[in-house]
Amino acid sequence: MAKVGYNWLNLPQDILLEVFRYLTPEEKANIRATCKYLKQLVDHPTLWMNSTIVLKNLQSCNSLFWRTLRKRRIRSVVIKEATQKKWQRMVNLLPGLTAVTIDVKKNLESLRTLTLLVNLQKLQLSNKLQMLDQELLREVTIFKQLTHLILCTSMFVHNSSLCHIAELTKLQALTLHVGQKSPLASLRYVLFRLPKLRELSLSSVDIWDNLSLCFTSPGMINSEQTEYDGLEPQCISHLQLEKLSLLNSINGPLSEAALKQLSNVCSLSVSLSRPSVSMNSNFVHSMLENLPSVTELELCWTGPFTEYVKILPSDLASLDLINTRLSNADVQLLSDSSGKTLKHLGLVLCSGITEIMLKRLPKQFPFLQTLDLSGCRLLKPDILLGLGELTFLKEIVISNNPHLTDVIMKQFQTLTDNRVHVAQKSKRNLNRCDCIFYFQSMN
Are 433 and 441 spatial neighbours (Cβ–Cβ below 8 Å)? Predict the structure, then answer.
């Protein structure tokens, strides 16, 4: 065994790093503890370039901890709790941070400390921030270099406070999750003054009177009343949104003018908070029927998929269904329209799934590369082995499955020559805000 271990350590570092890239953080930690050589390899920056470190208490972080983070070139952190002094120390020790999430109560001094992070591009103020007021948003606009801004809060103090975001002209992604009715005029003001904005996520859309107003050019409105007192940013004529996410939603059809402004949307995510009285009046229908560029769709609702499957955009490349009621006929219709183009399919916590449906997947969607069957308890050993027929499959998610033992998993890996990664946890929300408004849409 010692000889085998010695030969293994003699492998080129590039090969070892490639192997380590597939390990979980826990597995990396176990290997790191074996010897100095592997410790050095595990701390290589290429293994941590997309990692986010959660700092629950900066008080307990010693110099060795900070040295390890610098060695790994950590660029993204989540701060749970910290004093102003510890904030300052973190900024001094990790000056290369590009993404920071603040999970504490309003602290303007902490925000001012972050101004020393000249490379900061992503800032998230999470749901424990109970009040989103004008003073705080003015502080946020200090970070002119921001490309991603995530705001999760319970309410606005002043309707025009949101207008300050228009100063962040480099923004590419904006997440606004609030618990109260959002100021539509202020949001429209912002959207049409961010020329580089490509991604937008809104929550609690069901309490908005007219969603179309957000996506209608100010030039088409007789007057636009805002109390923003800053330098007036230039207004753009057409939105360039490519990704749109609407959580806790139910609204009437969008206007023709609004749909034209959303013509570039290719990725759409919608969670319906409750069924509408008439599905034909639902704004999701108007989007699916009038946005032909959509190739990625995520739909979260407890109703039947039948209501939407006939109006889905053709040639979908990615589809996630969450809590949706399925039928064999629905899946067949999906196969007829997108069977040759669909590369990702997620059936998360869906009802109506049958063993026959699962067994037909390889023939109905032969080009799948990723398959998420989280919560599917009908995924039995023979069905899993049958999914090995998916020649292009790279990853399958099988969380909360009582039937698949380690022996079965080894058989599946052998059958597929270890080309398929079996995950126990879905990765679909890695880049999504995890605030309370999202979780409400999942319940």
Answer: no
Helix (H) / strand (E) containing 54: strand 52-55
Q: Which of the 8 DSSP states describes residue 388?
A: G
**Does residue 373 contact residue 347 with C-beta atoms inside 8 Å?**
yes
Q: Are strands 173-178 and 122-125 parallel, antiparallel or unpaired?
A: unpaired
**129, two tokens:** 């921030």
The one-letter amino acid at 106: K
- Report whether 389 contacts 360 (CB < 8 A): no
What b/e readout covers 57-90, taking b as 16+ CB neighbours within 10 angstroms?
ebeebeeeebeebeebebbbbbbeebeeebbebb
The alpha carbon of 265 is separated from its chain's Cα centroid by a whole number of angstroms, namely 16
Decide: residue 353, CB within 10 A, 0-12 exposed, 13-18 middle, 19+ buried: buried
Please tell me the distance from the alpha carbon of residue 76 to that of residue 80, in angstroms, as a whole number: 13
Residues in Cβ contact with 60 at an 8 Å cutoff, skipping those fewer than 6 apart: none
Please classify residue 156 by burial: count the beta carbons closer than 10 Å to its beta carbon, then call 0-12 exposed, 13-18 middle and 19+ buried. buried
Q: What are phi and psi of 319, to 5 degrees?
A: -140, 125
Neighbouring C-beta atoms of residue 272, cutoff 10 Å:
25
> For 196-221, how does the pLDDT look when each residue is reduced to its tens digit (9 = 90+)?
999 999 887 665 557 888 899 887 55
Q: Enter the pTM of the model.
A: 0.87
pLDDT digits (tens, 9 = 90+) for 341-371: 999 999 999 999 999 999 999 999 999 999 9
